[in-house]
Amino acid sequence: MAENSQAAAGNENKNQPQFAMQRIYVKDLSFESPNAPTVFQDQWKPQVNLDLNTGHSKVSDNQYEVVLSLTVTAKIEEKVAYIVEIQQAGVFLVNGVEPQQLDHMLGAYCPTILFPYAREAIDNLVGRGSFPALMLAPVNFDAIYAQALQRKQEEVTAAEATSDAKTH
Questions:
Q1: Backbone angles phi, psi at 136, to 5 degrees
Q2: For residues 18-27, b (16+ Cβ closer than 10 Å) or e, as one string?
Q3: 89: closest CA among 118, 52, 60, 120?
Q4: In Å, how far are 62, 82, 84, 110 from 24, measured between CA atoms?
Q5: 18-154 is classed CATH 3.10.420.10
Q6: Which of 13-17, 34-38, 114-118, 148-152 has the lowest mean pLDDT?
Q7: CA 85, CA 29: separation in Å to the nearest integer?
Q8: What is one Pfam family matched by this protein (predicted)?
């Protein structure tokens, strides 16, 4: 009897949602300061631009690689002070979740975990380039994910409207 209840408990655990961070690593990293050393003579009032992107791919049955790509460009007027590019990645174990929830986890939750690592690497590189510290503000990946879903839905609706117009 006890063996049967243990087996049943084991089966229940298999059906429970599972999430685990397995590895976090830098996939690609680049720092450029094309106008050094003359850029150090300018008054430091940079315009900083941040571009970010996320992506994911399946590694195995329940393992996914999530890649957070950030590009930071700092300019003084039209002169580029520095450009930092990083692809901060992680491997995550995700099991027993619905497809929509999986998409949200890979598109918003995992990038939220990766962002502090990328922010620290960027700040470190900027400092090594002899520039003042750069602490990127937190990013709301849930809001970015929601905007992407809304855009995708609008594209589907527009495509359906175009298709309906052509058939009539």
A1: -65, 140
A2: eeeeeebeee
A3: 118
A4: 17, 25, 19, 11
A5: yes
A6: 13-17
A7: 6
A8: SecB
> Which distant-in-sequence residues (6+ apart) come within 8 Å of 118 by Cβ?
68, 70, 86, 88
Of 142, 117, 124, which Cα lies nearest the Cα of 24? 117
Rounded Cα–Cα distance for residues 38 and 81 (Å):
9
Cα–Cα distance, 60 to 127 (Å, whole number): 38
Domain boundaries, the chain: 18-154
pTM assigned to the model: 0.82
Structure tokens at 167: 């058939």
Mention every residue, 6+ apart, whose C-beta is less than 8 A from residue 38: none
Distance between CA atoms of residues 20 and 15, nearest Å: 15
Label residue 160 by pLDDT band (50, 70, 90). Answer: confident
Provide the sign of the torsion angle of the four alpha carbons 112, 144, 97, 59, taken in this order: negative
